[in-house]
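Justification of computing resources. Each target in the renewal requires a structure prediction run like the one illustrated here; the chain below, 310 residues long, is used simply to show the kind of job we budget for.
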Amino acid sequence: MARSYVRRQYGAVDILPASDRFDVVDLRLLAPGKDRPATEGGHLLPMTGSLDETPCDVVFVADCAADQADREDRERGHGGELGHWLKARRAEGAIIGASGEGIALLAANGLLEAIKATAPVGKLAEWHMRWPRVRFEPGKVLIEDANIVTSQGGVYDQELAVTLVTAVTSANTGRWLASRLGITRTALAGDLHTQDYLIERAKDWLVTRFSQKVSIEDLACAMGVHRRTLHRHFQAETGMSPVEYLQSLRVEASKRMLERSPFTIERIAALVGYSDAGFYRTAFRRATGTSPRHWRARHRQDQSSAGEAG
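Resulting structure tokens:
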């Protein structure tokens, strides 16, 4: 879903051959050893490879429910192979997500020490005793701390997925995905729904079109209200005008491109909806307090420092 959204946003803008880079997700299903993982119903899943050193932006450790007999072996990660692999990916700066009993694998390998995490309700007391250095918090279905996101599992995994997608794309993508899945809030995307249905519709309209040449007149017409009415509702609900909200969507989308792509600032400006790169730079500085160039340089420096620390 995130891939489709990004393709629609930027595909018509970016006519260069490199537009395939906007596919966002290169999903791989990996496991230690030669055994293929299976669903609860016993269906074997197609493997795309064994553990390797290919860098990852996100690693998701599924809710790998297991019988008591093989639990210890699972948590050791097949002789430490999986634990070593997870530590290496974290040292590279990957965001780690874990669901349900998958959280136990992170705890058993020391990846949650001094970090806040959630736990399945039935496991909370046991896990507190087994890993006292992990800051398990009762009552929280989803927790993000130090680039590790944990979910109690089950229905909360959709919220976890939105959180991970948001972290590596943009808040815009996360908001759109959450609205399509009926999720009202995620840990990294913040509040998604307001009390004003008109503004909910208007936000959704802008989120799906922010990279296009749209005007507030177009938005007011689509909502069936006068521009002044739209402005009044927007200001009351968000503290921003519709134009300011549109600019915030564009700037937010550009942040991830600055951080994760080799694209020039001029190309990024065009992709997020600015025909004038100078105007984009002004809008970016107004929103963040710094220039796009400095934002990119600071992020790369942070990445380099994290790699050295790892």
